[in-house]
Amino acid sequence: LLGFSLLEVFEPSSIQELEVNECWDLGTLAMIASCLGQMTNLQKLVINEICTPLKWLGNQEMKEWCFTEIISQFSQLNMLQHLYLNDVFFLNERLDQVLRCLKNPLETLAITNCMLSESDMSYLSQCPSIHQLKHLDLSGVTFLNLSHSLLGRLLERLTATLQTLELKGCMLMDLQISVLLPALSQCSQLTEVNFMKNFLSVCSLKKLLQHIANLTHLTREMYPAPSEVYDDNGDVMPDRSAQHCSELMETLCAIREPKEIYFVSKRCLDCLGFCVYNLEATLCSCWQ
């Protein structure tokens, strides 16, 4: 019904941006899929929080029909440049089916809080539609159990175009981040990076800062506080945090003057705040 009401109000071919902000279920999205396919001038598509109806949890046939209905419409979106998929569960093992449909190179790709498989990342790293990406956001995609080289290969293809990179909360650790450094250091157009909510040591953060220190277009940098700032209970030790973050800042400032840079702790379980270090420390309310 929603799809038909949209058609009554708007001429589908006149719609350039569509944002689905409600927590729709898979069936609702499938119902308007044909309407989506008629939006032939759509340039920006945002889909947030698609869930499975409880009554369909054991009905794989119905879910597969919905997947097919939805994904098949992407082939009609010849003008699409900006694609945002947040908390969309059906991407797992199907990302290639979505991206293979696209005929126009994307400028923005945001796949956040989604489960991606090894085959998904393998396809993404060689997908023809992403070779001109300017903005990549994979926040909330867990890379802990994926091949370390896949994200590095993806960045290698984007060194000439990428302007913003968001890898917030990806469970990146020292080993994974080290694989990214050669390609990351070649991303000469980067203006913003966000590595918050990952688990990196002082040593790895220093290497990261050294590798991107010559990226002169960077205007905003967000990093996790190093793992050494936490005690055995996972709480921030303010003095140690200030010491390590100051050392990291000095590492970068020895090479270039950062414009806007933050080292941010994980969320405090007591006050739900953060400890942030910029040029000075700002503690969560528990320490103020």
UniProtKB/TrEMBL annotation:
Gene3D superfamilies, alphabetized: Ribonuclease Inhibitor
SUPFAM superfamilies: RNI-like (SSF52047)
Domain of life: Eukaryota
Keywords on record: Leucine-rich repeat, Repeat
UniProt GO cellular component terms: cytoplasm
Protein name: PRAME family member 12-like
UniProt source species: Peromyscus maniculatus bairdii
